[in-house]
Write a structure and sequence with these properties.
12 helices, alpha/beta, single chain, six-stranded mixed β-sheet, 332 residues
């Protein structure tokens, strides 16, 4: 499993990852979610020993990432966002090369097993330069599972793939999650909802929520913002907003593409009964009245909206010009 405790990474006065803590368990796909530049790749690079933290602790399969780095590397498989492949090699020769570097025994057997597991045995002897991006991604996953690691870390494995390839890789990720501790980074919310058993949401280097999608949905639905959809005459929008705003249990209202969003004063008190009464008294036809966060995408948008509101202005511009090149790329 993966255990992270107060992990922090700073560059001068800029904090890329700020005291985060989470766990990923065997037999589960843990989604690591966040917008571009949130700190996902920086965290993964620390977990794989690619870069040291400023402070904090992380263990992988029971070994400290920073004090027992070689033991961790034996037990971890890592797929980078941009898979580094030798394009003049074949998948078979490339994996044989990786097996030799890792000092594996029974190399041919393990290479064939890895290729078979990712569905690439039929293209084992094709030049990598002639493979589609989806197939190259499968070769990258094959090198990550070649040594049958306890832990797999996949950084944006479906980025740049066509819809058919995305579905194939998602199926593969779900299958791998049954046999490994799997940490899966993505900024595509629908993808995470389909693949992940548990999610960790990060924004501006802070973990803002974690749990199963169902747990996060329940947490936000309890007294959270609600969507009000109703049929009203043209020009009545302001009257609707004023009527809902006048409800004692409602703190704020705002128009949205789908209707009106109401925010309660007390998150422990559900404002929907009061809203329903106000709508009926106003003579409008109520079409829908539901909690706003009903899927992972809405949960993510709600949580990041709250996080952004708490950030001081100018936080995004605090990153120094002297960040390492790979960090500038991540934050772009």
């Amino acid at each position: 499993m993966i255990e992270v405790q107060n992990l922090t990474k700073r560059y001068g006065g800029f904090t890329a990852v700020d005291s985060i803590s989470f766990e990923a368990h065997p037999g589960q796909v843990t989604g690591f979610l966040g917008p571009n530049g949130a700190g996902k790749t920086t965290t993964m690079r620390m977990l794989t020993g690619y870069m040291p933290p400023t402070s904090g602790k992380a263990t992988v399969a029971g070994y400290d990432v920073f004090e027992q780095s070689m033991e961790v590397r034996k037990r971890i498989g890592y797929l980078l966002e941009n898979v580094p492949l030798y394009r003049d090699m074949t998948p078979y020769s490339y994996l044989m090369y990786i097996a030799e570097i890792r000092g594996l025994d029974r190399r041919r057997q393990k290479v064939e097993e890895a290729l078979d597991r990712v569905g690439m045995l039929g293209r084992a002897n094709s030049q990598i330069r002639n493979l589609s991006k989806g197939m190259r991604q499968r070769v990258g996953i094959a090198q990550a599972i070649l040594h049958n690691p306890d832990v797999l870390i996949l950084d944006e494995p479906t980025i740049g793939l066509d819809p058919h390839q995305v579905l194939e890789v998602r199926d593969l990720v779900r299958e791998l999650g049954r046999d490994h501790t799997l940490l899966f980074s993505t900024h595509i919310l629908s993808e995470a909802e389909q693949v992940c058993d548990r999610v960790v949401i990060i924004n501006h280097g802070h973990i803002i929520a974690q749990g199963t999608p169902a747990e996060l949905r329940t947490e936000l639905e309890r007294g959270g913002r609600v969507l009000v959809r109703l049929h009203s005459p043209d020009g009545a929008t302001q009257a609707v907003l004023d009527a809902i705003q006048a409800i004692p249990t409602v703190a704020a209202v705002e128009p949205s593409r789908d209707g009106v969003i109401a925010t309660p004063i007390n998150p422990e008190v559900d404002p929907r009964p009061d809203i329903a009464r106000a709508v009926v008294q106003g003579g409008w036809d109520l079409i829908e009245l539901r909690p706003l966060a009903v899927n992972l995408e809405e949960i993510f948008l709600e949580l990041t909206r709250q996080s952004e509101a708490e950030e001081t202005e100018g936080t995004a511009s605090d990153a120094p010009d002297t960040l390492p090149e790979e960090e500038r790329e991540e934050m772009a």
